[in-house]
Design goal:
thiamine pyrophosphate binding; Rossmann fold; THDP-binding; 38% helix; 2oxoglutarate_DH_E1; seven-stranded mixed beta sheet; 965 residues; thiamine pyrophosphate; alpha/beta; ODO-1/KGD_C; nine-stranded mixed beta sheet
């Protein structure tokens, strides 16, 4: 029992056997007050002396502690008597081993340029632990060091530690709190110290990969002089590293690998890893396009993606290189989302079949906030992908600013010692490796792949290398880094260095390396890829056919109605809660009200309509995925898709229990991230057209934090790369006097991005419109991003309701005109608007009994429904004034983005005016009284027009154009 307690303590304690002085003082504290020490220590001390009531000699305590520590991980050994001095020496040895594990990376040979001088690390000096030259021949217990011998001379122990932890690999992992993971890494590193890292066949393959990496770069450099390609030279070992990723994945029966990377080395990866045809690549360099045949705007060659199947290690593996803009690291969450969708399509909950690989630059990995956001998602519910292999191509240089492995605080462009320090928050191991030791690079890559497979967690490879040219091939790096580039010019390439190593080992002769290089160049001359052969995509059962999702047009009317009987059946299942499930009284009231709505006893609200949209889509066999910071309950307490038992806190999600068995409903309450989560959902939607994928901003204003994802992917992905996606964004929007940070979803920014009919922007004004809009997104054979400005106060507005029949009949209406019952001939002014302001206008018109004003809602602002708009104008033959009315300031909202569309069909009699808040630098005022005054003025100007109103607190109505002559 005593031994079991000791072993348990050792396994879980963060302290080590060398801390004898600390143990003594802690034991003295235990003798005074046993309850004052940590429980695991209390159990240990108690096990040494029965109940621990009487003091015992401190020497035996140290002997017992040191002895049990030394045997940890090695199995029990007979206990020998040990003098106090010998115990101190043994403790010093164990401390030294431990400090090599913790700090050996600081003394490692990591910089191929040799510019970095490792600091003196006192903890790695034997003298620091009371050990001297006289002890070098003394045999000590090796403790938890993974060696075949239980005892070794001190010099041999130190030699092992140096070779493992201060060679060309420097490992950081001792911050990991999971003992099993730490011991796994220790075993893999330490037990392999005397074993060759690669066999002869693997070494030859590494040389072949280095030849390919160097060959394509030199070929492009000489054939396309001055063209940007963002060369990999100096980081050539990335190609054998990625080749090992693919081989290890194949051996583990991984079906797909999705790679995200920026531009450096991208062309090299496309050809030598994914097998893209050099002939196609050369055509892109030569600009060999028929402009008349181009169907999209396109992108530069080093942003383009690629996908194919290859056969390797007797396995077929699908490789994907994600499209990526120049915004470094922005692709990270996109790749993760794509991988998640692929995994869920295969019902892979553990990430065994699809592998995400992210390639980073050192400056961007340390500097871009989206890296942290993506890392934080890695183990989160609804976002975990079974671990990502991260490869940092650390060329020790950002654009022009040096980022050394370590530097004095304030002298360089970052604060952290390593660019990878951010990964420590995940307790992810980091393997720093010298890029000019390709065998070490392949070794840690294999280790990283095995770690990911074993523990399902992220792992980091920090390949420290250099950049042979400038940021691009036309740049001159010596201007800002003269010393570094004096050294670079003297450097032999990694291929030459490695070829020399293999020649010295007798594995190749003096001509073999050159023959490999000549053969590779001959293949390029013929436009052939001799590095990687692809199988294309024929026969891949998991490939999604996206062709069907561009068959329909946005203007095609689709039937989104659902029979009343079906709606009631689905509603009944949604309201069928488990036995003894006690809801909060406010939530119970909402559920009870929804029961009445389903029965037709009361008008339906937005929450009910939304649930019916999801339930009916699930019933049709579609999946629904909803993510946001408060999406389960809803920021405005309207949704309640997740219900909580007030008795025990257990949650129940009714939408998981409706629809077809194959259909899945997922709702994720996410961390406070916009860019990371939206990028993830975009990536998900590009890989799964059968899921209604929704990202909801907590407030519409918060979408600002994801602007890069919107600009570079969502709004332009189809035009640049031909990537379809049906992502939906819910952006709460409306002026309720909540100040500048909680009013506007920046509608004007989305409309400014709209062109080429690539995105849909809607402002639904009724629950039924929301219902039909969501169903339309999936029912029609069209996948375009949908931006929905969703309501806030309208969620409970007495006028903003619908009937059950509104869901059972019809479709989404681009424009909602007045009912047929009004007198068309009496209308003199037609006011067009969107969203909440319609109800303010409606109530004011009714109060004033104005029968000469028509209120028309434009529910879809892009693509603009020009035909429907023209039909409305044609209906009101006597109307001369056409007004656009909006809550937003003049320089915001829809006005400036749709003004030209409103003008086009106007007749000679028409005069176009607009009613808005005055132009403003912020989205809204922060004073409630001022907000109310402005809102009243907007409504007044919209209904009656009149003088030019520009004073603060008033709206403005101005003529946008003169009457046609």
């Amino acid at each position: 029992m005593k031994s079991e307690l000791n072993d348990k303590f050792i396994e879980n304690s963060p302290l080590f056997g060398g801390n004898a002085a600390y143990v003594e003082s802690y034991y003295e504290q235990y003798l005074k007050d046993p309850d004052s020490v940590e429980p695991s220590w209390r159990d240990y001390f108690k096990s040494l002396n029965g109940d621990g009531a009487e003091d015992v000699a401190h020497g035996p305590i140290r002997d017992s502690f040191v002895d049990t520590q030394a045997s940890a991980g090695q199995g029990a050994r007979p206990r020998a008597s040990m003098s106090q001095r010998a115990a101190q020496k043994q403790a010093g040895v164990l401390r030294l081993i431990n400090y090599y594990r913790m700090r050996g990376h600081q003394a490692a040979d990591l910089d191929p340029l040799g510019l970095y001088q490792p600091p003196t690390v006192p903890d790695l000096d034997p003298a620091f632990h009371g050990l001297g030259e006289a002890d070098m021949g003394t045999v000590f217990n090796t403790g938890s060091l993974f060696t075949e011998a239980d005892e070794l001379p001190l010099r041999d122990i130190i030699d092992i530690c140096k070779r493992v932890y201060t060679g060309t690999i420097g490992t950081e992992y001792m911050y990991i709190t999971d003992t099993r993971q730490k011991r796994w890494i220790q075993r893999r590193l330490e037990a392999s110290v005397d074993k060759p890292r690669l066999n002869e066949k693997e070494k030859r393959e590494v040389l072949r990969q280095l030849t390919a990496a160097e060959g394509i770069e030199r070929y492009l450099h000489t054939k396309y002089v001055g063209q940007k390609r963002f060369s990999l030279e100096g980081a050539d070992s990335m190609i054998p590293a990625l080749d090992e990723v693919v081989r290890s994945a194949a051996r583990s029966h991984v079906d797909e690998i999705v790679i995200g990377m920026a531009h450096r080395g991208r062309l090299n990866v496309l050809v030598n890893i994914l097998g893209k045809s050099p002939k196609e690549l050369f055509a892109e360099f030569e600009g060999d396009y028929d402009l008349d045949d181009l169907e999209m705007s396109g992108d530069v060659k080093y942003h383009l993606g690629f996908s194919t199947d290859i056969e390797i290690e007797d396995e077929r593996v699908h490789l994907v290189l994600a499209f990526n803009p120049s915004h470094l690291e922005a692709v990270n969450p996109v790749v993760q989302g794509s991988v998640k969708a692929r995994q869920e399509r295969r019902h892979d909950d553990d990430g065994d079949t699809i592998l995400p690989v992210l390639i980073h630059g050192d400056a961007s990995f340390a500097g871009q906030g989206i890296v942290m956001e993506t890392l934080q998602l890695s183990q989160a519910e609804g976002y975990a992908t079974g671990g990502t292999v991260h490869l940092v191509v650390n060329n020790q240089l950002g654009f022009t600013m040096q980022n050394p492995i370590t530097a004095k605080l304030g002298e360089f462009s970052r604060t952290s010692q390593y660019c990878t320090d951010i990964a420590k928050m995940l307790e992810a191991p980091v393997f720093h490796v010298n890029g000019d030791d390709p065998e070490a690079v392949v070794f840690v890559t294999r280790l990283a792949m095995d770690y990911r497979e074993t523990f399902g967690k992220d792992v980091i490879i920090d390949m420290i290398c250099y950049r042979r040219h400038g940021h691009n091939e036309a740049d001159e790096p010596a201007v800002t880094q003269p010393m570094m580039y004096q050294k670079v010019k003297q450097m032999e390439t990694t291929r030459l260095l490695y070829a020399g190593k293999l020649e010295s080992e007798g594995l190749i002769d003096g001509e073999e390396a050159q023959k490999l290089a000549d053969a590779y160049r001959d293949g390029l001359d013929e436009g052939k890829n001799i590095s990687r052969t692809t199988l294309g995509l024929v026969g891949n059962e998991h490939t999604v056919d996206w062709a069907r999702y561009s068959r329909q047009r946005w203007s095609d009317v689709v039937d989104t109605s659902v029979p009343v009987e079906t709606l009631q059946r689905l509603a009944s299942r949604l309201h069928d809660l488990p036995d003894s499930f006690e809801l909060h009284k406010r939530a119970q009231r909402i559920i009870d009200d929804r029961g009445k709505m389903a029965a037709g006893a009361s008008r339906i609200d937005w929450g009910f309509a939304e649930h019916m949209a999801y339930a009916s889509l699930l019933d049709d066999g579609f999946n629904v995925r909803l993510s946001g910071q408060d999406s389960g309950r809803g920021t405005f307490f309207h949704r309640h898709s997740v219900l909580y038992n007030q008795k025990d806190g257990q949650k129940f999600i009714p939408l998981k229990h409706v629809g077809r068995d194959s259909a899945v409903f997922t709702v994720n309450d996410t961390l406070l991230s916009e860019a990371g989560v939206l990028g993830f959902e975009y990536g998900y939607s590009t890989a799964d057209p059968s899921t209604l994928t929704i990202w909801e901003a907590q407030f519409g204003d918060f979408v600002n934090g994801a602007q890069v994802i919107i600009d570079q992917f969502i709004s332009s992905g189809q035009a640049k790369w031909g990537r379809l996606c049906g992502l939906v964004m819910f952006l709460p929007h409306g002026y309720e006097g909540q100040g500048p940070e909680h009013s506007s979803a920046r509608l004007e920014r989305f409309l400014q991005l709209c062109a080429e009919r690539h995105m849909i922007v809607c402002v639904p004004s009724t629950p039924a419109q929301w219902f039909h809009l969501l169903r339309q997104q999936m029912v029609r054979d069209l996948r375009m991003p949908l931006v929905v400005l969703t309501p806030k106060s309208l969620l409970r507005h007495r006028l903003s309701t619908s009937t059950l029949e509104d869901l059972a009949d019809g479709q989404f209406n681009f424009i909602i005109d007045e009912p047929d019952s009004i007198d068309d001939d009496a209308i003199e002014r037609v006011v067009f608007c969107s969203g909440k302001v319609y109800y303010d206008l409606y109530q004011a018109r009714e109060e004033r009994e104005l029968d000469n004003v028509a209120l028309v809602r434009i529910e879809q602002l892009y693509p603009f429904p020009a035909n429907d708009y023209a039909a409305v104008l044609d209906r009101y033959k006597n109307a001369e004034e056409v007004v656009w009315c909006q809550e937003e300031p003049e320089n915001q909202g829809a006005w400036y983005q749709i003004k030209h569309r409103l003008q086009v069909p106007l007749a000679e009699r028409h005069e176009l005016l607009y009613a808005t808040r005055p132009g403003a630098a912020t989205t809204a005022v922060g004073y409630h009284k001022l907000h109310v005054k402005q809102q009243e003025a907007v409504v007044e100007a919209g209904l009656t027009g009149g003088e030019r109103l520009v004073d603060k607190g008033k709206a403005q109505t101005r003529k946008s154009r003169s009457k046609k002559k």
